[in-house]
């Protein structure tokens, strides 16, 4: 209550009322402060909560290179990228551009995702996994928007690694039957990759099982210009992968991991991790205190039986055949001093069941008749070895034959290196003179085959030595090949 005296503007309030008034004002004040506080605090509180969630969503993998077994060559290649991410200024000062995109390609389950996580773990980068198929939407523009928002998030928490699995889902070659939504999504990805500055350390890793499907635009310099093949593990790698996946499991001492690795030729890392897990589950079911060989045997059978592709696991007989076939190529290459062999392997790669890798040659612009014939002999060496050892040939030389025949054809029709001398055959002339040309091609191929066969026959002890080691180890480096030859050449010369 307020008393008002019109004359003096003095307001007289009795003390009891004064007390109540003070209390009222105080309570208002406290209420206001509380209201004000809560009005201010609440959004702050919510904001913190959101930040917290965002931070929690930022995935910083704890996986390290040590968790990825085998793949030593790949890891070596990635060490450079690690240095880029860890010390970007060193490179910026030199005016060097940090690579933006890396493409991992190879068969499924070989550790592409694992490696990308390990790269993030090693560099303490934020990890943004995505799958190409997530961006493929019915409605135009949705995929592009998702790409934009993914890059926005990655930029905020740089250094970041964006991992796009199944990149072929958005990055496949564009055809005349264009799909507007897919094209927009791919364009957005290209724009984002072209857009981020080199000061923002963001590496985009794409993974695919089919490199050949990807659009050229994606592979251009400045985009996914580093391509790293990640293949199925060889014997040593399989042993290491099995070790990684049995590390924290009680294993019966009688289990020989090396022997398990030998029996799982052609399987991927994912299969091996699956075997270890299946074996553990079986051990629980069998009331065992440790995983024994019976559980492993059953798990291997289960995983192998579950494989749809029969040739995913090469039968032992085939493995022997492939070993001799590849040894035939490698030995011919060595004897004829053709190209420098850097690796021989019987680990399937793409459609090939084995392969010989040659060290990059210096650029050559001229090749002689003899050199071309030697190339044909090396190509035919695989089939010759099969004929020599098994008395029959297989379909495995399909690609070799195609390449050998192409060289022979060029020798006859383009280089004037046959009995038809210095003639050049244009398509119409080829049609008219086909029997003549064919006879010359056949002559070159037959002579080379005969020569390669005799050479391998003469050095069959070396062929067997290489094939045996290859069968055992599955991959031989150029140096290991050299050592086998040296060792057996000595034995050979001593024995004659
Ligand atoms: N080199 C390896 N070392 C250890 N574990 C491995 C290795 N390779 C594969 N694995 C195991 O297999 C699982 C699957 O591997 P990952 O997902 O990385 O394969 P991927 O190549 O990305 O397959 P996809 O092409 O099918 O996406 C991993 O989680 C891991 O358990
Ligand atoms: Zn071959």
UniProtKB/TrEMBL annotation:
For this protein, the Enzyme Commission number is 3.4.24.-
Q: Where does Zn(2+) bind?
A: 325, 329, 400
Q: How does it assemble?
A: Homohexamer.
Q: State the free-text cofactor note.
A: Binds 1 zinc ion per subunit.
Q: Which residues bind ATP?
A: 106-113
The UniProt keyword set, sorted, is: ATP-binding, Cell membrane, Hydrolase, Membrane, Metal-binding, Metalloprotease, Nucleotide-binding, Protease, Transmembrane, Transmembrane helix, Zinc
Q: Which GO terms describe its molecular function?
A: metallopeptidase activity
The active-site annotation reads 326
Indicate how the chain sits in the lipid bilayer: Multi-pass membrane protein
Q: By what name is this protein known?
A: ATP-dependent zinc metalloprotease FtsH
Which family is this sequence assigned to?
Belongs to the AAA ATPase family.
Organism superkingdom? Bacteria
Membrane spanning segments where?
A: 16-35
By its UniProt entry, which PROSITE patterns does this protein fall under?
AAA
Which InterPro entries does the record associate with it? AAA+_ATPase, AAA_lid_3, ATPase_AAA_core, ATPase_AAA_CS, FtsH, Peptidase_M41
Q: Which CDD domains match?
A: RecA-like_FtsH
